[in-house]
Design goal:
The N and C termini lie far apart (about 50 Å). Strands 1, 4, 5, 7, 12, 13, 14 and 16 form an eight-stranded antiparallel β-sheet that branches. This protein is mainly beta. It is globular. It has two helices and 16 strands.
Length: about 250
């Protein structure tokens, strides 16, 4: 009997370890979700690179940018500046819940048609899926906007509150998906809707402050970014905001 108890305990420990490994893994694209995991970039560069040791993904800064004591200033010079992470598909959520959050300070955004300063994104429109956090200029100031494009369609959602982002102050923005609900949270105020876009599978680099190296001035974010968080899996919405202190 004692031998059976020992074997049973050993089997329980093995199964528990396997379960722990499963729930700490990144979502594999199936309908089931996993415990959230992801990347946290504190925007404190060394040699032009921001690192996240826990997830082993770096963000390479290019163009004219400036290190400002835990923040990185982008834009303002007419020369594209951005951060690029060659993550492959590691930050592609597929069918899973996910969230991308950023702490930003933005200069005034021109109301001219076509301006859409990109804060952080993965994927390009019409090329295998996309998630994107950007600013939407209005006559009353720029508002936060999230874009989602997946296998079943594309959609955007704007912050419906009166929070103005391009006022030179610090703001926390999060774009997220939970099941078929997508949303944006700005300084604690949430706007959401039920819209199923399907699997999001981009494999292009994740970029911060612009969509790509040769993008135009209308895609350039002009301001400072102090933290960028991308979380994938169950609980990612809460985890994204929780890590914004970096």
């Amino acid at each position: 009997m004692r031998q059976y108890k020992i074997v049973s305990i050993q089997m329980f420990l093995v199964m528990s370890a396997a379960a722990a490994t499963l729930f700490s893994s990144v979502a594999d694209g199936s309908a089931a979700t996993r415990e959230s995991t992801g990347v946290v970039w504190s925007m404190s560069p060394r040699g032009g690179v921001v690192t996240d040791p826990a997830f082993s993904l770096s963000l390479e800064l290019t163009g004219r940018w400036a290190d400002d004591d835990g923040w990185v200033r982008f834009g303002g010079s007419g020369v594209p500046s951005l951060g690029v992470s060659h993550d492959g598909a590691r930050l592609a959520p597929n069918d899973s819940d996910f969230a991308v959050a950023a702490r930003v300070t933005s200069a005034k955004v021109p109301v001219d048609r076509g301006y859409s300063p990109n804060i952080v994104q993965k994927g390009l429109a019409g090329q295998g899926g996309q998630w994107k956090m950007t600013l939407r200029p209005t006559s009353r100031g720029a508002r936060g906007l999230c874009r989602f494009e997946g296998a079943r369609g594309r959609t955007t959602i704007s912050d419906a509150t009166s929070v103005v982002i391009d006022d030179g102050r610090h703001h926390d923005i999060e774009c997220w998906r939970e099941g078929v609900r997508i949303g944006i949270t700005v300084d604690g105020h949430t706007t959401s809707a039920v819209r199923a876009v399907g699997a999001i599978r981009p494999s292009t680099p994740t970029t911060v402050a612009n969509k790509k190296i040769n993008a135009g001035v209308k895609d350039q974010f002009n301001g400072s970014i102090g933290c960028v968080v991308v979380m994938i899996g169950q609980g990612s919405r809460g985890a994204g905001l929780a890590h914004l202190g970096c």
